[in-house]
Every structure is written in C-alpha cells, then in structure tokens.
Amino acid sequence: PGEVSRAAFVCRVWLRMLKCPCPPSSAGLELSVNNHAADFTLSTELGPAISLSCLVQNSSQAEELLWYRGDGQVDLKDGNKVNISNVCISPVNESDNGVTFTCRLARDKSVQVSVILDVQFPPQLSGEETLHVEEEKDVTLTCNSKANPQAHCTWYKDNQNLTLQASRHELYQTSEIFRLSISTVQMSDNGTYTCVVQSPLGTGTKAFHLIVEDKKPVFPTEAVIAAVVIVALTIFFGIVARKEKIFKVW
C-alpha cells in the first residue's frame, strides 16, 4: 500500500507538470545590437538615418523583444518583435545626442543591451543683436550654442581680439552658454562685438552691436521732496503765527 500511494503521488506530480509546464529558463540567452553583445556607444552625425538591429542569441524558441528610448517603450510592428527587431532613427538630430536605446528580452528584462548615441555636430549659432545701454550702466552679451564635441569661444570687438580688463570685463561659459559682461560701460565700449564659437567640426558666429547712450540726468527726487516739505512747514507755521489776525478778519 505504501508503494502504491507513493506511485500515485509521483503520478499526480507528473500530471501537474504536464498541465503547467515550468517557464523556460533564460540562462544562456544573449542579445546583441549591431553585433555588440554588451553596452556600447555609437558615434554618428546629423541627418542620415541609422538603424539598430537587436538579435536573440542561443535560443531554441521564439522570443519576444522590446525596445526602449530612454525610459519610454518604442512601439513595434507585429512582424518586428520576434527573435530579431529593428528600430530606425531618421533623421538624426541634436536631441538624439546622449539618448540611450535599449533592447530587452520580453520575459526577462534583465537580459538587455543598450546603445548610447553620440551625435556629433558643429556649433550652431548665427544672427545679429543690437543692444542700447546707458553710459556707466552694466551690460551682458550672451551666445547660446550647442556643439559636439564641445566648442570654445573667442570674443572680438570691431574685428579685433577683445582686450579684457579685469576690472570691467567678465567671461562666463558652460558647454552651451558663452557670456561677456561689461560693467560701468563707457563711450569707448561702443562698437560691434562678435562671439566666435569653434569646434573641430566647424565655426559659428553671432554679432552684437553695442550702442552706448549718454547718461540721462538724474531727477533730484529727494531734494524736491525736502524742498516741498520745507515750504509746507513754512506756510503752516506762518499761518499759526498769524492766526489771531486771520480770525479777526473772518
């Protein structure tokens, strides 16, 4: 009887396994993107489309694939999900620089390969700007520019290298902002300033026409108020001093 019950138990276990098979293991499965089995960086340029192809390696069955752009999932057509999947970026633009595309196994998202786009482009800035500033005021000229690889900036005044004065000129820059500040503007600062941004891929420029205007006379507000107060007090005390005569008249 004991052997019969054990046999019945084994039989029931086998029946359960047949009805509810264990999910296949993802051990040994690998993905590759453009023949890279590990995360990598893809350098490209503006314009031409690029294609990313994800392929399942070492699989004996159909495997569904998922694509992500950053944290957002990419919509794929039904015929572009099983064992091999492709995404196309067209056209490539500045906003794609630094973006991560990730291909993942649908049933085990820990199996994945990521590619970071390194989109290279020259500095992009142009145009002109006219600034009016009163003498002895402060003014700031700002160039906003994106570039990859990072660019550097040189400032010119009337087509000559700008001679910086530590007491009046200040330069500030980040990867996308180049700023020239001039304090206590003088008539000699009048002229055209040019921001020239250069990288190995090209050059961008922007001109600023700085027009320094004569200092406006300052209205002596405090002095006028003081004078009005004095006059009012004088009239008031004069009335008080002569109130008896005024009342007699009335």
UniProtKB/TrEMBL annotation:
Molecular function terms from GO: cell adhesion molecule binding
Membrane topology of this protein: Single-pass type I membrane protein
Transmembrane segments: 223-241
Keywords: Disulfide bond, Glycoprotein, Immunoglobulin domain, Membrane, Transmembrane, Transmembrane helix
The protein, known as: TMIG1 protein
Subcellular locations according to the entry: Membrane
Domain of life, source organism: Eukaryota
GO cellular component, one term: plasma membrane
InterPro entries noted in UniProt: Cell_adhesion_signaling, Ig-like_dom, Ig-like_dom_sf, Ig-like_fold, Ig_I-set, Ig_sub, Ig_sub2, Immunoglobulin_dom
Domain Ig-like: residue ranges: 24-114, 123-213
The species this protein was found in: Brachypodius melanocephalos (black-headed bulbul)
One GO-annotated biological process of the protein: cell-cell adhesion
Encoding gene per record: Tmigd1
PROSITE patterns linked: IG_LIKE
Coiled-coil spans in chain: none
One Pfam match: ig
